[in-house]
Amino acid sequence: MQASWDDFRFVKVVADRQGLTGAAEALGIDHSTAFRRLGAIEKALGVPLFERHRGGYTATAAGQAMLAVATRMEADVDGFSREVVGRSDVMVGELRITAPTSFAGTFLMPILADFSRRHPAVRLELILAEETLNLSRRDADVALRASRGPDETLVGRRLTGVGWALYGAAGQTFGRLGDERWVGLGESVAGGLFARFLARRVSPDRIALSLNGVAGLREAVAAGIGIGPLPCIEGDADARLRRLGDVEPELHTDLWLLTHQDLRRSARVRAFMDHVAAAMLPLRPLFEGRGGIT
Predict the structure, then answer these.
(1) Boundaries of domain holding 206
(2) Which Gene3D superfamilies does the record match to this protein (predicted)?
(3) 42 & 141 share domain
(4) Burial class of residue 94 in the structure, from the number of CB atoms within 10 Å of its CB (0-12 exposed, 13-18 middle, 19+ buried)
(5) Strand 182-185 and strand 207-211: pairing?
(6) Is the dihedral of CA 214, 215, 219, 225 positive or negative?
(7) Please, which residues have CB within 8 angstroms of residue 241's CB and are 6 or more apart in sequence?
(8) Is residue 294 part of a domain?
């Protein structure tokens, strides 16, 4: 039996999700359908493709061989897709943008609205995510990404520095900050950068809440759960918050606008990147936190 392209893709999803439950969710099918499909593929090939364990599915030798082919096929398809989009010189079609979740409520929507008015034939898809999406796989075409150094396979431009400072709820008074209750981002965020920042300033028993995203962190500070570090673009603009100190140099990062090198000549990618870069110029002081303590 000759496996179809869809069979290779299905097996790769099962391997990537380490089982049928995650694969079914990713493919939008129910578990029983996924179970029957994998069984049919293995029966037709005459070999098992996975070993079943309580912790998930592990590819057999035959499964690994099939996965190697599927990975090459996926890379070829992604490369072809990027090449086609990269050669496009018309302002028509879909443009997928990814950005951190918190950006939607601060500055991004007015920029997207203005771009959409100027280029109504370009359909925008915004993917808000804290995790880093893969531009090589075209999970997105353009990424707004806070980073101290972007992946060398990507191209783009540094838009601005991003300053961070400590904030508390506006209606509260604060004494020695080390004696206050704190909130912060956990070990899983930015390689533990923010967790280490807190550890150097406050004992563990003073940390009231740890989160995995900036949007939730801002709400926690505003609710009075504790003081904590926030990007100045968000903290200074929120009337519920009060800045408690100068910009913290060790938390400084940069905001980058990135795309895959195969897409940089696409008319809609170029137009969007130019538009965002121009719109960001007057916002730089806000991002860098030059407003000072309130």
Answers:
(1) 164-251
(2) 3.40.190.290, Winged helix-like DNA-binding domain superfamily/Winged helix DNA-binding domain
(3) no
(4) exposed
(5) parallel
(6) negative
(7) 167, 168, 169, 170, 218, 221, 222, 230, 235
(8) no
**Would you write out the chain's pLDDT as a tens digit for each of its 294 residues?**
567 778 888 888 888 888 888 888 888 888 888 888 888 888 888 889 888 887 788 888 888 888 888 888 777 666 666 565 555 566 688 999 999 888 887 789 999 999 999 999 999 999 988 777 777 676 889 999 888 777 777 888 999 999 999 999 998 999 999 899 999 998 888 888 999 999 999 999 999 999 988 889 999 999 999 999 999 999 999 999 999 999 999 999 999 999 988 887 888 999 999 999 999 999 999 999 986 565
How many Cβ atoms are within 10 Å of 149's Cβ, its own excluded?
8
Burial call 65-89: b when 16+ CB within 10 Å, e when fewer: ebbeebeeeeeeebeeebeebbeee
Are 44 and 112 part of one and the same domain?
A: no
Whether 175 and 208 share a structural domain: yes
174, 247: one domain: yes
Domain CATH for 52: 1.10.10.10
Q: Residue 274 and residue 225: Cα distance in Å, rounded?
A: 40
Structure pTM?
A: 0.67
Residue 145, domain member (yes or no): yes
**Total structural domains within the chain:** 3
CB-based contact 79:87 (threshold 8 Å): no
Residue 9, domain member (yes or no): yes
Q: What six digits make up the tokens of 118?
A: 């100027």
Query: Is 119 part of any domain?
Result: yes
Q: Which of 45, 39, 44, 43 has its CA nearest to residue 20?
A: 39
